[in-house]
Amino acid sequence: MSASNYDLVIIGSGPAGYEGAIYASQLGLKVALVEKETWLGGTCLNVGCIPAKAMLQSATMFDKVKKLGEYGVKVAGAQNPELDFPQVNKRRDEIVKTMTNGVGYLMKKNKVDVVRGVGSILGKGQVEINLNGQKSILNCKNILLATGSRARHLSHIKVDGKYIVTSEEIWSFEQVPETMVILGGGVIGCEFASAYGRYGTKITILEMGEQICPTEDHETAAELAKFLKKQNCEILTNTKTKSMAVKDNKVEVYLEGESVPRYFHKALLSVGRAPNVENIGLEKVGIRLNERGFIPVDLKTYQTSIPGIYAVGDIIPTPQLAHTASAEALYAVDIIAGKKRHPINYNTNPGAIYTYPEVASIGFTENQLKKEGRDYSVAKFPFSAVAKARIDDNADGFIKIITDKKYGEVLGVHIVNGKASEMIAEFALGNNLEMTIEELAHTIHPHPTVSEAIKEAAHVAMGHPINI
């Protein structure tokens, strides 16, 4: 075995891993980034966030072409456009390739050593690399685990990668299926429903809970459901699936309470993500998982129970979001480099769902505040009252701001709109600065913009609505 010495070895090259590696190198640390796959960027870049958004953008463009006449643009055949699905896939793959190549370039630019192979902790300060049976050792002062997550499977449903798939195999579809059942109405399930439903697939979403997107505010979830139903989607909530299996080249599904099976051409299993904590050497140094299978860490340092070993992202019990993982990695690197930081406030951590319309949120939902017995107020403003939203054909949805009655603190924001993911960042900054609703209402927003709805909703909360 050969050995090399580093200040920091990071296992996993997803958003947390590669951004942490860049930042650590910029701070003067000697860094190695270990990746078992042939590509960099992790699940998000290769088989997750980025390709999914490319698929959704194609669906949005497919919709817009049908409306060109409303803009005064005459194009032959625009009323009946055809979807070129191979081109949809080609464009998606080209975007992914460009971005992964970009990560490789950033590693060279920032003098990060990329080490190919399966990385695992051999002992404190030692990482073993296994590349096709050839083993080597990286000696280091610190280890950062950023191994991410994978699509969760269910023991009674066999994923065959052809008829029954997860979000990691769905990219192999060569044509748009006529029908598809989606087991799980969470973020991933709804995004694929919104894409394929607009492509023309008849979608059925099966959700065990009372609403789709169970972690979202009940009003935004209901609004999204309303639009998904217009996009070829049937939504069955409070529904349990007894069995799902391939039969005669179709997917046979039995639901509880139904004696007759339903049949679909494809099925997407979308029941959450499992942390990649196996075979990374945790047991060799005595790191134990919590009851949910995640690695416990000190959220003031992201250090595990073993000094010098840190963990961030989907493998720790914090929101499984790429931007959250990146923020945690940069924080952990600061701690490793001896810098002081204020702990991350997860109430200022935004989330986004890239359906049409998008859903974005930050802070508390109304139901969470009810359970806590908080005294709060709710203000809503529809995008239909915003001129730029109508100009952009983006007047669907609303913004909902929840504030503390006594101090006017913004406790939660929930947006349903085609640009929701862009607008929520204003609240991430505002919440970090402990913004009040009065300060938000008095912040000048450019006119005409879709983001004016933020100011308008703030005025509603203040008790003096202006443009409604």
CATH superfamily of the largest domain: FAD/NAD(P)-binding domain
N/C terminus separation: 71 Å
How many discrete domains?
A: 3
Strand content: 25-35%
Mean pLDDT: 96
Helix-strand category: alpha/beta
What is the assembly state of the chains in this entry? single chain
Please name the CATH topology of the largest domain: FAD/NAD(P)-binding domain
Query: Helix proportion of residues, in percent?
Result: 25-40%
Count of helical segments?
A: 13
Computed CA radius of gyration, to the nearest angstrom: 24 Å
- Name of the top-level CATH class of the largest domain: Alpha Beta
Largest sheet: 7 strands, mixed
How many beta-strand elements? 22
